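Below is a filled-in request sheet from our internal design queue. Each sheet records the structural input a requester submitted and the sequence that came back. We keep these sheets so that new team members can see what a complete request looks like end to end.

REQUESTER: design group, bay 2
PRIORITY: normal
MODE: inverse folding
CHAIN LENGTH: 325
BACKBONE (tokenized):
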């Protein structure tokens, strides 16, 4: 993540972070009742933990409870439907991510929601890159060397992933390298990384946090990351652009969204509160313990980013002939 998003926000918000309740005073009548964060995954998931950490800080700042409700199911559609049907009054928040807000709209033509018309970006939470991983004892010194060998030998590579977004990143990689891929789909990242470490895959895609354990043990090797800059927690891992793959940049992200018709003043007050929560001691401690970095993007900037990521994935899907189903 670019440092300007983080550093440029600290001075202006320092006073707000240090003054719990300040946002409740500024908000007038809002909020006057508890705010709900509808998480599309079970308790204990990354999205659930993120919502609870920042929700607790927001609660102190706003002077009202911020309650996390878990509504897993149907790839997030259960939670999305609940938020979409809620009043556009700022009291219901959805923690969206790359998949439902950028990728699913590319690959599905009959979604029961419109990621851009039904929801309004509130504020970013976290951002990182997709990691491209090989077996720990791979004989190849770099990803370009591995891909060049596969192309030279005219052999396909098996690539494990557990989401359409990761599948698209792998497809993109195969296209720019001129290498044939065999996609192996998993229900979760743990099994994909385990099979990679056992030599049953050539490569596997995951976010940076999902590879931490096996990477530390030396059972897998992270060969590249797709973010703009190197991950501070993995400073030895080069970006795809550093490796010579021009314009190969995409991100994994999490952010808060609300109903699109929510009034501007309420939207701004909520977004300012989320930003202050990210800059709080609790927020910084949570960020330090997790991969990636804080996503310091306010409403409009976040919306522009979401659109850009959507267009990036759409371009890859179109080039690969992957039509919406």
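RETURNED SEQUENCE:
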């Amino acid at each position: 993540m670019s440092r300007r998003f983080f550093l440029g926000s600290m001075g202006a918000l320092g006073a707000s972070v240090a003054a719990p309740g300040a946002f409740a005073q500024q908000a007038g009548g809002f909020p006057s009742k508890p705010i709900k964060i509808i998480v599309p995954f079970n308790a204990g998931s990354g999205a659930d933990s993120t919502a609870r950490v920042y929700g607790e800080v927001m609660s102190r700042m706003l002077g009202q409870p911020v309650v996390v409700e878990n509504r897993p199911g149907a790839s997030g559609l259960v939670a999305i439907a609940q938020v979409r049907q809620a009043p556009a009054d700022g009291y219901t928040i959805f923690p969206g991510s790359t998949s439902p807000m950028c990728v699913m709209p590319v690959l599905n033509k009959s979604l029961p929601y419109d990621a851009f018309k039904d929801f309004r970006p509130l504020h970013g939470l976290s951002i990182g890159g997709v990691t491209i991983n090989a077996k720990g004892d791979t004989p190849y010194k770099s990803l370009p060397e591995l891909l060049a060998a596969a192309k030279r030998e005219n052999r396909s590579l098996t690539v494990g992933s557990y989401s359409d977004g990761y599948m698209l990143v792998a497809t993109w990689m195969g296209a720019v390298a001129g290498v044939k891929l065999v996609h192996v789909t998993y229900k979760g990242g743990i099994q994909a990384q385990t099979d990679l470490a056992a030599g049953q895959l050539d490569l596997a895609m995951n976010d940076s946090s999902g590879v931490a354990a096996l990477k530390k043990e030396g059972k897998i090797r992270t060969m590249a990351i797709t973010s703009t800059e190197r991950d501070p927690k993995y400073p030895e891992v080069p970006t795809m652009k550093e490796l010579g793959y021009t314009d190969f940049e995409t991100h994994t992200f999490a952010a808060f969204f609300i109903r699109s018709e929510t009034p501007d003043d309420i939207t701004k007050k909520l977004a300012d509160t989320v930003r202050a929560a990210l800059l709080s001691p609790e927020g910084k401690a949570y960020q330090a313990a997790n991969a990636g970095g804080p996503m310091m993007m306010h409403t409009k900037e976040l919306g522009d980013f979401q659109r850009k990521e959507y267009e990036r994935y759409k371009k890859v899907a179109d080039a690969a002939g992957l039509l919406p189903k």
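SHEET NOTES:
- The chain has twelve helices and eleven strands.
- The mean pLDDT is 90.
FILED BY: M.R.
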